[in-house]
Amino acid sequence: MSLEQHYTAILEQLGEDVGREGLLDTPKRAAKAMQYLCKGYDQTLEEVTNGALFSSDNSEMVLVKNIELYSLCEHHMLPFIGKAHVAYLPAGKVLGLSKVARIVEMYARRLQIQENLTREIADAVQQVTGAAGVAVVIEAQHMCMMMRGVEKQNSSMVTSVMLGQFRDNPATRSEFLGLVR
Ligand SMILES: Nc1nc2c(ncn2[C@@H]2O[C@H](COP(=O)(O)OP(=O)(O)OP(=O)(O)O)[C@@H](O)[C@H]2O)c(=O)[nH]1
Ligand SMILES: [Zn+2]
Fold it and tell me: Domain 51-180, what architecture?
């Protein structure tokens, strides 16, 4: 069965009249939307970074802040929405600026839990850049906690992963945390 046919079945199970005008194209649209929200499965790190790695003597912290993020929690397939802050300490190579956001996007566009998303982004930036350290902080609000379940509207979840110098050197870590706060 195609994704579209599954959505027809879901609508029927929910008690909808799939023949009514407003729903005629809904299974097709919903399938397309869900494929878009999960498009990260078709991407690879090589593809999204596209070799945009440049030699640089700069070893100072590079920070890309406030990268907006839309993902789906793997437990309920409901959105979680927030921001990612990604920093690294170059060790001879810097990554094209947009590629940091593309890496975030590739992992966010999959079914996720926030902790694993944070870790996957950090590991990917580390792998691509060979950096002396990588730090990722994600702050997000989970619709599964807001629209349903415990229904807490103002809570957000903050996760972080620190690698290399960000883990080992408290001064580097506090510089980063000061910059994203
Ligand atoms: N750690 C973590 N938990 C998440 C994330 N997204 C959703 N969850 C949680 O996954 C858990 C699943 O718990 P279950 O008890 O199996 O599911 P549930 O009955 O729908 O839980 P409630 O949300 O409490 O109603 C819930 O506590 C969610 O809040 C995430 O990114 N990270
Ligand atoms: Zn959830």
Answer: 2-Layer Sandwich (3.30)
